[in-house]
Design a protein that fits this description.
Layout: E1 2-3, E2 9-10, H1 12-39, H2 46-59, E3 60-66, E4 73-81, H3 84-93, E5 97-101, E6 113-118, H4 121-131, H5 138-153, H6 163-178
Antiparallel strand pairs: 1-2, 3-4, 4-6, 5-6
Length: about 180
């Protein structure tokens, strides 16, 4: 038995069911917001979107991050540069977080670099929607397509038994495309 805030005792199974229902309601609410956001047109000027696409093709990457034993995965978009102003522009358009570091080199005269990171599904999808039409290289275009497929298939209540197999396949495809030396 669990003592609730109202002073009423409740069994653990009932508490779990109530929590699951609250989560499902919140998920459906967030899913409708997600769909509304995806339906919105891009807010970027074509010239800005093309500039960001070129910048991303040269300095950015898309990965699918794994969460260890749980098997939880999420998309991650990163772009690294020594120009903080450029990173700030990206962070204003698609808010993520910025990590600052000094690369470890033998010569010890490397500049401080910043990495802009998006790891929210909605923000990654918005970035892909805005930038994909201007991507030219086949490898980066394929990574965006894998990201979009991943996002369309990923949600907590997708009970399809083959979903996890499909997600693992996408993870392997992304790893192969991100491997060094692949053109």
């Amino acid at each position: 038995m669990i003592l609730r805030a109202s002073g009423i005792y409740q069994c653990r199974q009932c508490a779990t069911i109530r929590a699951r229902k609250r989560y499902q309601f919140k998920f459906k609410e967030n899913l409708s917001k997600f769909k509304e956001e995806l339906a919105k047109p891009s807010h970027l000027k074509p010239l800005d979107a093309a500039w960001i696409a070129g910048l991303f093709e040269g300095e950015g990457t898309i990965t699918i991050s794994t969460g260890g034993r749980s098997g939880y995965t999420r998309p991650v978009i990163c772009l690294t540069s020594t120009d903080l102003q450029m990173i700030d522009i990206l962070n204003k358009i698609w808010p993520g977080y910025i990590r600052t570091f000094v690369p470890n080199t033998k010569s010890k005269n490397a500049k401080t670099a910043q990495t802009w990171v998006l790891n929210s599904g909605l923000k990654c999808f918005q970035f892909a929607r805005d930038v994909l039409p201007y991507i030219r290289t086949e490898r980066v275009r394929k990574k965006f397509e894998i990201l979009i497929e991943y996002m369309q298939d990923a949600h907590p209540y997708n009970r399809d038994p083959d979903r996890k197999i499909r997600q693992q396949g996408r993870l392997q495809q992304m790893r192969e495309l991100n491997r060094r030396g692949i053109l």
